[in-house]
Design a protein that fits this description.
single chain; alpha+beta; extended; 4 strands
């Protein structure tokens, strides 16, 4: 059985689970955590951890509240995406 996490309760009152995201390396999971923690509406800190079931890396909450200082630090670390212009459209 794969790793799953609680998603919601359906109309019949049953718990519905969804598969967890899996990362092959701790570095990949940490990079994703930083991206997710930098989101404006993110309140609790997300951390990466190694799963005892599948031996891959997942992302979870650690219960700590994100501080503005930490979010500002993340904004400096994570580069903004650069867009490449492929061509022009004449209207």
């Amino acid at each position: 059985m794969g790793c799953s996490t609680f998603s919601h309760i359906n109309e019949h009152g049953d718990k519905v689970f969804k598969p967890k995201l899996k990362f092959n390396t701790l570095d990949d999971a940490i990079v994703e955590c930083k991206k997710l923690n930098a989101r404006p509406k993110q309140i609790t800190k997300l951390v990466s951890y190694k799963c005892k079931t599948c031996h891959k890396y997942h992302i979870g909450r650690n219960g700590k509240t994100l501080t503005d200082k930490y979010k500002d630090k993340l904004k400096q670390v994570i580069p903004k995406p650069k867009f490449k212009i492929l061509g022009k459209i004449n209207l």
